[in-house]
Structures are given as structure tokens and as C-alpha cells.
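Saturday, quiet lab. Running sequence design on the C-alpha cells for the scaffold JK sent over.
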């Protein structure tokens, strides 16, 4: 049976420190004001000027020809693979990729495509692993159509792919006749951490999207970018998957505000993640991975307290974290301050101490 999202435990207090996900961010008063002032029209009819402004700006930012505004990043991934692939074809991706683990089997259910999972440390595979996965042409095997990467790699701990490796992967894929797609849910985290412009980071990738509901703090929306022909076909799939969002400029304005105000500040989240990492590494028995960006993964088994028990105990103290891939994940974002990090560490120390 498929269950609805889990509700808070009985008697749980309000959340005062939310480290569950950067999707939990609330729009700031200034962002809400920008949304209220947005000039709007009917997106379906093509006359919402704020949506056009967002899409034009995103295409330029990513170094692509065109873009389309979508409700979510998952919808961007689904629409992109449906454009790139035909039934019976194959996508190559890391075994922990979001398209494989977290999208409800959409790519098989809607596109009738399969995903070949590659292994690799921290959610990233090597160029040699990709070369080894190429099947060649045969009537016995599926046609390989698409190579996918996730920047940053979520389950890999928010790891940042090296730009040179991304370029090599794209070159191998194109040389074998495959297209390339970048899941850019936290792409700007990677760009800020690496000091590389988005257009350079995404060069060689035929399609890419950016999520505005994570570290960028908007309440809704993602933008998929590619060639004009690709985006025309993505619009067709957007129509099939649910249609336009009508006066979507209200939401697009929040995304434009995020581009203006919430990119450079991602460095603050990275600094807070490092501070959390340092604090966790000083607690005996906790195994923690040093973060590249804003995601901190750790395991408390060595303390004698199971990680799931720690997650529940923290929630009862008003601190919310997630449990992902067998580890606890703490996500730093614009609603988490440096003092909150220190308070969360104090609560965690107390939870572990009392067992």
C-alpha cells in the first residue's frame, strides 16, 4: 500500500529549526511583494510578460536558446526525457539519480524507457564507467539515447561534479550519438561552490533545468532550458502532463527575485553546512561526510543510538531532519541561521547522551 506523507509524531512541538530540506523555505516578505506586483497574462496564450522575462533570462544564464517554466523540477526531468527518448530506449544515469529513485517510476510509466544505473562514489560516475556502459548497436539491446547527470548529486551529499569530468562525459555521450541532460535541482549551489558560471557548468548538455524551490527560496517553479526545437517539444509534453499555469507570472516573479537576491547568499548555506559538519565530527561515534555545498549526511550508529531513533528524538525537540539513503540528512538553507546550527548541535548532543 502507498501511504500518504508521514504526519508529525503525536505530541510533537512546532518545528523551530527545519533542516529537513531547502524545499521547506518560506518566501521572504520582499519576494512576496515582488510576486504581488507582478505583471501577468495567460501563459497558455503566450502573453504573460513576467514568465517570458524569466524564461529569457534563464536561457541566457544557462547558455541555451530557449526555456519553459514548469511547476516542478520532477516535471522538468519527465518532460525532458520524454522529448529525448522513445519507448524501448535507455537512459544512462547514476544508481542514486533522482530520475531513478524519486520520481515514482515516471520515466518507465510515461516514456516506456529504462534507466541503466552506474555506480560511483558520492552520486557521481566516472568517464570510464560511462565508456564501459555503452552497448553499441545491436537488435538484442535497447537503443541508448540519453546520458544524465545530477548537479549537485543529492544522495552523494550535495557533491559537486568537476567541470572537466562533466565535459568529458558530454564528449563521450555525443561521440556515441547520445544526448545529454543535466538535472540541475541545486545547480547554483554547485556554481557558487566551484566559482563557475552556470553557462560554463552546463556547456555540452543538451538540456538542463534549475529548481527555484530549494536554496533559491521561491514557493514554486523550475525552468527547463535547451534548443528552441527541444523547448517546443517540451511545451507539448507540458500540455500533455497538465497544461499551462495561466497567470503564472505571479510565481515567475518570485523566481526572478531569487535570481537577483538569492544566488550569492548560497555561500552562507555552505558555510553553515561546514560549521554543522565540524560540530558533528566532534561528537564521538558520529560518522559524517564533509559537505561540498549545503547538504550534510551523517550516521549515529556508532554512538549506540540508531539514526532513525535520532531523527524521531530530534523532531520531538523541534528540530527536523530527514532520513535518506540509510543516513540522516541535514539541509542548510536561507531559513537556517548560524545560531540555529549551534542550537541544533546542542540538541543532538543531548539526544545522543541520553540514548
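Result came back. Writing it out in full:
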Amino acid at each position: 500500500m502507498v501511504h500518504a506523507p508521514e504526519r508529525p509524531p503525536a505530541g510533537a512541538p512546532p518545528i523551530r529549526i527545519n533542516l529537513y530540506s531547502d524545499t521547506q523555505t518560506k518566501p521572504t516578505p520582499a519576494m512576496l511583494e515582488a510576486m504581488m506586483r507582478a505583471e501577468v497574462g495567460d501563459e497558455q496564450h503566450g502573453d504573460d510578460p513576467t514568465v517570458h522575462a524569466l524564461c529569457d533570462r534563464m536561457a541566457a544564464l544557462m547558455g541555451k536558446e530557449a526555456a519553459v517554466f514548469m511547476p516542478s523540477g520532477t516535471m522538468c526531468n519527465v518532460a525532458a526525457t520524454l522529448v529525448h527518448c522513445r519507448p524501448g530506449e535507455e537512459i544512462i544515469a547514476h544508481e542514486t539519480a533522482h530520475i531513478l529513485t524519486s520520481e515514482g517510476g515516471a520515466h518507465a510509466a510515461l516514456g516506456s524507457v529504462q534507466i541503466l544505473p552506474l555506480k560511483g562514489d558520492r552520486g557521481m560516475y566516472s568517464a570510464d564507467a560511462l565508456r564501459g556502459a555503452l552497448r553499441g548497436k545491436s537488435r538484442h539491446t535497447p537503443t541508448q539515447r540519453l546520458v544524465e547527470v545530477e548537479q549537485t548529486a543529492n544522495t552523494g551529499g550535495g557533491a559537486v561534479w568537476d567541470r572537466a569530468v562533466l565535459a568529458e562525459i558530454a564528449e563521450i555521450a555525443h561521440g556515441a550519438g547520445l544526448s545529454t541532460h543535466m538535472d540541475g535541482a541545486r545547480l547554483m549551489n554547485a556554481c557558487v561552490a566551484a566559482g563557475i558560471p552556470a553557462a560554463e557548468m552546463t556547456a555540452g548538455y543538451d538540456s538542463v533545468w534549475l529548481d527555484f524551490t530549494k536554496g533559491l527560496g521561491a514557493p514554486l517553479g523550475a525552468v527547463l532550458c535547451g534548443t528552441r526545437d527541444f523547448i517546443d517539444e517540451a511545451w507539448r509534453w507540458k500540455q500533455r502532463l497538465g497544461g499551462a499555469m495561466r497567470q503564472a507570472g505571479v510565481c515567475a516573479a518570485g523566481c526572478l527575485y531569487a535570481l537577483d537576491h538569492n544566488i550569492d547568499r548560497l555561500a552562507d548555506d555552505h558555510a553553515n553546512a561546514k560549521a554543522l559538519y565540524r560540530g558533528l565530527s566532534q561528537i564521538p561515534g558520529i560518522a559524517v561526510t564533509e559537505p561540498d555545498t549545503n547538504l550534510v549526511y551523517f550516521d549515529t550508529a556508532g554512538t549506540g543510538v540508531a539514526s532513525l531513533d535520532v531523527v524521531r528524538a530530534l523532531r520531538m525537540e523541534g528540530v527536523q531532519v530527514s532520513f535518506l539513503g540509510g543516513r540522516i540528512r541535514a539541509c542548510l538553507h536561507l531559513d537556517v541561521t548560524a545560531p540555529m546550527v549551534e542550537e541544533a548541535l546542542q540538541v543532538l548532543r543531548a539526544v545522543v547522551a541520553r540514548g
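Notes for JK: DSSP finds 14 helices and 13 strands in the chain. The chain has a mean pLDDT of 95. Ask whether to fix the surface positions before the next round.
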